Amino acid sequence: MKYFPLLWATLWRKKTRTWLTMFSLVAAFLLLGLLQAANSLFYGGTINLSANLLITQARVSFTSPLPLRLLPQLEAVPGVEQVSWSQFFGGVYKDPKNFFPQFAVVPERWLKTFTECTLPAEQAEAWKGSRTAAVAGRQLAERFGWKVGDRIPLNSQIFPLKDGSRAWAFDLVGIFDNTTADSCPRMGNMYIRYDYFDEARLFGQGTAGIYVLRITDPNRAEAIGRQVDAMFENSPDETKTQSEKEFNLNFVRQVGNLSLILNAILGAVFFTILLLTGNTMSQAVRERIPELAVLKTLGFSNGGVLGLVLAESLLMCVIGGLVGMALASAAMVALAHAPVSFPPLRADATVWLIAVASMLGVGLLVGLPPALRAMRLSIVDGLSGR
Amino acid sequence: MKQILAITLMNLRAIPQRLGSSLVIVIGIAGVVGVLVAMLSMAQGFGATLKATGKDDRLMVLAGGVTSELSSTLMPDILPLLRELPGLARDAEGRPLVSAELVVITELRRGEGAQRADVNVSLRGVEPLGLQLRPEAKLIEGRWFTPGLREVVVGKGAANQFQGVQLGAVLKFRGSEWTVVGTFSADGDAHESELWTDANTARSAFGRGGSASSMLAQMQSAQSLPGIQAAIKADPRLQVDASTEVAYYSSQSQQFTQQIGMLTSVVAAIMAVGALFGALNSMYSAVSTRQVEIATLRAIGFSGLPVVLSVLTEALLLALTGGVLGAAVAYVLFNNMTVSTLGANFTQIAFNFAVTPELMQKGLIWATLIGLLGGLPPAIRAARMRVVEALRGG
Amino acid sequence: MSEAIVQLRGVSKTYTRGKQSVEVLKNLDLEVAKGDFLALMGPSGSGKTTLLNLIGGLDQPTTGSVIVAGENIEQLKSSRLAAWRGRHVGFVFQFYNLMPMLTAQKNVELPLLLTKLSASQRAERARIALTVVGLADRASHKPNELSGGQAQRVAIARALVADPTILVCDEPTGDLDRKTADEILGLLQTLNRQHGKTIIMVTHDPKAAEFASHQVHMDKGALADAPVH
Question: For the domain that residue C165 is a member of, what is the CATH number?
Answer without folding.
Answer: 3.40.50.300
